Amino acid sequence: MPTYFEDRHIGEILQATDIVALVSTYMALKPQGKDFVGLCPFHNDRRPSMFVSPGKQIFKCFSCGAGGDVIKFIMLKERMTFPEAVKYLAEQANIVLPERDTNRSSSPGREYDRNSLELVNRWAAKFYRSEYDKVDEGRIARDYVENRGISESTSRKFGLGWAPKGWDLLIKAAKADNIDLKALSKLGLVIEKDSGGYYDRFRERLMFPVLDGLKRVIAFGGRTLANDPAKYMNSPESDLFDKSRNLFGLHAAKDAIVTEKTAIVVEGYTDCIMAHQEGVCNVVATLGTAMTKEHARMLSRYAQKIILMFDSDQAGMKASDRAIELFFGQNVEVELVSLPDGQDPCDFLLANGGQAFTAELGKSVNAMDYKWAALLRNYEKTDGINGRGKAIEEFLKLTSQMSRHGNIDPIREGLIVNKVAGLLNQQPNIIHRQLASMRNSQPASQQLNSELKHSKLSFGTLDAVNRSYLNILEVLLNEPGFYGMVKEQTSDLSGLSHPVLRQVYERIKQCCEQMESPSLGAILGGCESIELCNIITDLSHTGEMRGNYEKTLEGAFSSLAMRNEKVEREKLKEMITDSANSFDRDTLDVMLADLQARLIKHKTE
């Protein structure tokens, strides 16, 4: 996967971000010699196994294997992709990255960065909250919230606010606090008039601030408490906000989702808020849009299972069906549940409480079962085997798509094959062959990911040549100054057949040829794969523990030389037995004796 940023940008971020300070914001660290140690946040750690090295600017857990630099730590802790983690750390360090997103309108001289826009949104959230707290002006909003059963502490937790009646109250407050109206306009909080000037977008609305997973205010949702036919209104998309990539309540639900390994998705703001109030905290809500692939990808970072809870009306059923298809593209289990009597989650929670809500969650239906039942319903009006055949054909098509994207493990696929075979009254092997004919071969990138995930096992069965290269890499990750010597001795890499070790070598080579004696942090900095980062830190630690770098290299070079000479010797033997060979026997004997002498020399060294 190509990086979106130049190495110099990564280097600036790594230099500007102190790993001890960063990790300390997530966990307690205690000094231990030249390093720091603490309980690893990536597994249930009872004995401190996470080490943080300020000298190398890396972290490493010797229990679960997680390791890398500050970028990898943020990727793991915040479930971010590599580009997202780089952008986040750049913003924290006030480093300006080049704008590469061609889907958004932007220019090199744009006036507002994301940090400044977020500060404006945060100011607006405080304004709306202050209006909500006013005795007279905010009463209508407070009364509505109270009637919905939302407590004062919950309203404060979610920062509920009030956009008062009037066309320019937000504008007047902004002017008084020296807030740029152009920034408000970029965020959609005010709208520019054709005749010049601005007016407030949100008026007479209960305001719901939308925060991202890092608790940054990125947008607002407003529910009208007047006669506006538009019941709900969200902020328009901006440099901060994309409704297809964000979920309401994620900032409050993230930790609970990770702990429970389950995310519950509802449709409304108040549904989400009431669930949290009743102690069910792993709940998020969509933002007035259907589920998207980006939503699915985001939730799959935190959860192993997703439970979709939509209203029981027809629109809700369509939305849930669409959501299932999207989640088929992610490596998560998906289940659906509907509340009795068509109740929405907020009303059900208010009437029955969190325990009853949790009990209903236990009745959720597996996505595959739901999809099959839905297909049968769609075709139940068709008489005879033809209708069932169409349903089965569509079901097989969906299953083949899942397999083609590599998101079904063999056990799960076997269960699906058996289910379909039972429906068709056919042998499972027949269904398996039909699925195989419907899907394409696995992409090479997925094969490499599989190699990365299982590399520790494969390292234990390396042949002598790849073991020598492994030792060389362990040295280079600690003493990259030896790269020139390694390059001279192993110029063709002819025996390095292990794909993961070759990828590690290529990363080291890239860094060493761009800078003199790069740090481990620099090598890790351009590596986007978390699995590969873990492997690099493992190899670095193993090499450091062994030490004796020069002798390790000498042994590896000697082993590779012997291997090359043995290959050459075998070729000469073939030449001897080849009657069509143009060399005379005496010449070949001399060459063979010379090789034999060199092999003996290597054995005695």
Q: Quick gist of this model?
A:
The protein has 605 residues and is an alpha+beta fold.
Q: Unreliable runs, pLDDT <50, ≥5 residues?
A: 100-110, 440-454
Count, helices: 27
Name the beta content range: 5-15%
Measured distance between first and last alpha carbons: 44 Å
Q: What structural category characterises the helix and strand content?
A: alpha+beta
Based on CA atoms alone, the radius of gyration comes out at 31 Å
Strand order of the largest sheet: 1-2-3-4-5
Mean pLDDT: 79
Largest sheet: 5 strands, antiparallel
Helical content stands at 40-55%
- Number of beta-strand segments: 16
Globally, the shape reads: globular
Question: Helices and strands in order, then pairings?
Answer:
Layout: H1 7-16, H2 19-24, E1 30-32, E2 35-38, E3 50-53, E4 58-61, E5 67-68, H3 70-78, H4 82-92, H5 114-133, H6 139-147, H7 152-157, E6 161-163, H8 169-176, H9 181-186, E7 190-192, E8 198-200, E9 205-211, E10 217-224, E11 232-234, H10 250-260, E12 262-266, H11 269-277, E13 283-285, H12 293-302, E14 305-308, H13 314-327, E15 333-336, H14 345-361, E16 365-366, H15 367-379, H16 384-404, H17 410-424, H18 428-438, H19 444-453, H20 455-459, H21 464-476, H22 483-489, H23 499-514, H24 520-525, H25 530-546, H26 549-577, H27 585-604
Parallel strand pairs: 12-13, 12-14, 14-15
Antiparallel strand pairs: 1-2, 2-3, 3-4, 4-5, 6-9, 7-8, 9-10, 10-11, 15-16
Helix pairs in contact: 3-4, 11-14, 15-16, 16-17, 16-18, 17-18, 21-23, 21-25, 21-26, 26-27
Can you describe this structure?
The protein has 605 residues and is of the alpha+beta class. Helix content is 54%, strand content 10%. It has 27 helices and 16 strands. The strands form 4 sheets. The protein has a 5-stranded antiparallel β-sheet with strand order 1-2-3-4-5. A 5-stranded mixed β-sheet has the order 13-12-14-15-16.
